[in-house]
Every structure is written in structure tokens, then in C-alpha cells.
Amino acid sequence: MAGGGAGVAKRLGTLLSGLLECGAFCGVIFGWASLVFVLKDLGYFEDLCQPTATPSPNRTLLPDCSWQDEQFSLVFTIGSFMNNFVTFPMGFIFDRFGTTVARLIAISLYTGGTLLVAFSTPELAVLLFPAMSMLSVGGILLLLTNMQVGNLFGKYRSIIITLYNGAFDSSSAIFLIIKVLYEHGLSLRAMFLFMAACSAWHLLRTLFLMPRTHIPYPLPPAYDYGLRCPGRSQSYRTYEEKRPPGEAGPEETPLEPSAPRGDGDPPGVSFRACVCSRVFAWHVAWLSVMQLRHYLFIGTLNPLLDHLARGDSHLVSTYTNAFAFTQLCGVLCAPWNGLILDRHKRGKTPRPEGALGALADLRASVLSLVVTATLCVLFSVCAAVPMLPVQFATFVLQVLSRSFLYGGNAAFLAIAFPPQHFGKLYGLAMALSALVALLQYPCVALVRGPLGGDPFYMNLGLIAVVLVAFISPVVVACECRRRAKELGAAGTPLTAPPGAETPAEMPQ
């Protein structure tokens, strides 16, 4: 780039290293089923198993380890809850203190979590509770700091953000790698000490390939970042001096594309109005019920496979590996939802600007919401079938549904609400859905107790719960009709002026 800005090589280095960071570290907790297999073999929480007269396929007596399974499920429940709930406060830390401070916090948490697992023992199995929470919080904060890398690539920004979220999903396969290496003789302690040592790489990337504050959008002339460019560069200060008074600077621009806006917030588009709107409330319900279904499946996969395989550890290991391998495809599936959301932007007819363009984006999101909910229902139906071979189809539908869920969540919030509230709304939606996700623990207790270890009836109930997700696209479709009527009544032209904002962009 001219003027001493970050060159193509540096930007590509930032992009690829961020993709590696998200794909190898950020979402490892969602590979929990593979790690549980190792922890059970090492004897974690084994004292909770009770003698029983249930015969296995080889006619030996199997202990009743339902209490052990419940304890492992509790570890995952708390860890996954922290993954979502802290997104709200961590988003404020990132916005207030910048990238370097946020990443140092994330690296500290992640290193502490890996060290706790490394030095845990069956006698100190309780260390898994803080360890998984620290890994979860550190990972999601690393993801938040990486999503801004898309700002370096202009029109490819949304694709890069989607890829990073897909890499986050795929990182759950790391625990599969740990399981395979463990089966080949490598100790759990050695592997987690290696993961802790990788924090040195995270630190170097923070210093040399990430900004101190934020990557602005659009990029100012000759923008640079990294250790050789502490704070704002001279080119950035020149850009700020030339900026017209009252115009938002690049670092004030949110991560998602900005909709046309006026000089101030018109009545009805405050943060409180967005939170209290029907569209946001039903979107949180859409996210919450499907996330609960996914978390419950991941957290109880090991006991489910053990129940269907009737204690055959070889079969359980085979299906656990198959599940983990499918998670690798998350990075490939994530952009598909983006193609659905952007389908109206392709073709010979240009996308309309102004209020009509915002309305077209919102209409396009309806199909995305429906497809995501449909995938989750199909996944839930397959998960309810008590046959092992059917679980292969369950694994494929699960990774498809999960990839659509999180990418679609961020994209919808950016489309449906004013961009200045995106970060707060995203964090709040994740935090509220985390509270609903806590229901997974009583669900596990229900299976272990009254249902006698058979999750069939609980799975049937979850299918009914997931059907609630279809209300959200109906509400959004009604919102689209309302906005279209308001535009027609106001006589709004097909192309609104660049700085205009109409009541049709306000959620109700």
C-alpha cells in the first residue's frame, strides 16, 4: 500500500494467522465429547459410579455411572454458559479498552485454563470446572478480537467474518486430536502443556499482527497497525484532521456494514427500544431454543452413545470420532448462509439504496431464519431416533444447523437493527440465550432420574421446543409488511437519499 501502510503480505498474514487461531483454539470446549472419553479412561469422577447388575454385550457387569455422566455434563453446562454470558461484558471491555487489552485478558484466561487441565488429576477433578470456563471465555474473546480483521479487506469483509465463525465451530475437533494422540500413548498433561506454551504465539500475534485499539472501517489512507505503529499512525491523524465536523470517524463505525443514518438517533431507535421490540424478543427465543438443543446434544453425546451401544467402548469411540470429524466441516458450511442472505444482491438489477435496500435485506433474512430452524428440527428428529447408524446423519445435520445458527444470528442483528447498537445487542442476545442454556442440566437430571437413562422422551419434547423458532421468521415477515406499508404511505422513493433514514428502519 502507498504511504507506508500495511502491505498485502502483512494483511494476509493477519488473516491466515487469525484463521488458524480461531480454528485451533477458540471453540475447543465444543469438542467436549471427545475429551470426556479421555477423562473417563483416566478415572475422573469415577468414584461416582455405583455397582449394578446390568450386563454388557460381553456378559460382564457394568457399573452405573449416571452420576459421573451428570458431573461431566455439569462441567460442560457451566463452561458453555460462560462462553455466551460473558460476551456482553467482554464486548464492553473490547469496545472501551481496545484489542491489546482484550487479547491480553483472553490469553491469560486461556493459558490458565490449559494449565489447570494439565495439572488436574482424578483426585482433583474439580479443577475441570474453572478450567473449562476459562478456556471458554478466553476463546470467545479471541474470536471477538479477530472478527475485525475483515475490515482490512473491504468488500470481502462479511465472507471473512463468516469464515472466522466457521473456524470457531471447527476448533471443536482439537479435542478429537487430543483423544487420538492419547490413544497412541501421549499423556493428557503433555498435550495441554503444549497448548499453554502456544500462548507465546498468541502474544506475538497480538504485538505484531493486531492493532492496539481497533481496525477502522472504512480504512483510512495508508493505515498501518502492529508493534511498529503504536496507537494511531500519522496517516490516521491526517485523515482525522481532514474529516468534516460531525462525521463519524472510522473507529466509530461498527463491525457490520452501516445502514444510512441521519445526524442523530430519531425517536424509536434507542437501544432500549431495540431490546423491547418484538423482533428482538422473538429472535432471542429463536437463538435460545436452538442453542439449548445443540448444547444438550454435545454435553450428553457420550452417555447417549454409551446407552445406544450398550456399553461397547469400541463403538462409542468410533462414533465419537465420527462426530468430531464432522465438526471440521463447520468452516466450509458457514458461508452457505451468507449466500442465502446476499442472494438479492446478485444479478443484473442493482440493490436499491436507502430504506428500500434495508427492507430488501430484512426480507432476505426471513428465508435464512426458516432454513436454520428447519435444519435444527431435522437434526432434533434424527437425534431422537434410538438407532446408532442414524446418528451419522445426526452429526451432519448438527454441524450444518450450528454453522447456520451463529452466522445467521450475527447477520440478522446487523440487518434488523441500527448499526450503532450492534455490539450491545449481539452481546445481550448471547447472554440471554446463555441463561436458557442452563436448562440443559435439569434436562440431564430428568433423563438420569425419572426417565431411567433413556433420553427418548426428552428428545421428543425438545423437537416441540425447537418448533418455537419458527415464530421468529413469521414476526420478521410481518415487520417487513409493516415497513412496506409505512414506506408506501409516506410516498418514499425507491432510492432514498444517502443520508436519509426513515421510520421503516425502526424495529417494533
Explain what you see.
This protein has about 500 residues and is mostly helical. The chain is built from 22 helices and two strands. A two-stranded antiparallel ribbon has the order 1-2. It is globular, with a radius of gyration of 24 Å.
Count of extended strands:
2
Average predicted confidence as pLDDT: 81
Low-confidence spans: pLDDT under 50, at least 5 residues?
229-243, 245-268, 494-504
Radius of gyration over C-alpha positions, nearest whole angstrom: 24 Å
Helix content: 55-70%
Question: Structural class, from helix and strand content?
Answer: mainly alpha
**Anisotropy-based shape:** globular
Distance linking N and C termini: 44 Å
Major beta sheet, specifics? 2 strands, antiparallel
Order of helices and strands: HHEEHHHHHHHHHHHHHHHHHHHH
β-strand percent reads: under 5%
Number of helices: 22
The strands making up the biggest β-sheet line up spatially as: 1-2
Topology:
Layout lengths: L7 H19 L5 H11 L7 E6 L5 E4 L1 H20 L1 H11 L1 H20 L9 H19 L10 H14 L3 H10 L4 H10 L1 H10 L25 H9 L28 H5 L2 H22 L1 H8 L4 H15 L2 H12 L12 H31 L5 H27 L5 H16 L2 H9 L7 H11 L4 H20 L18
Antiparallel strand pairs: 1-2
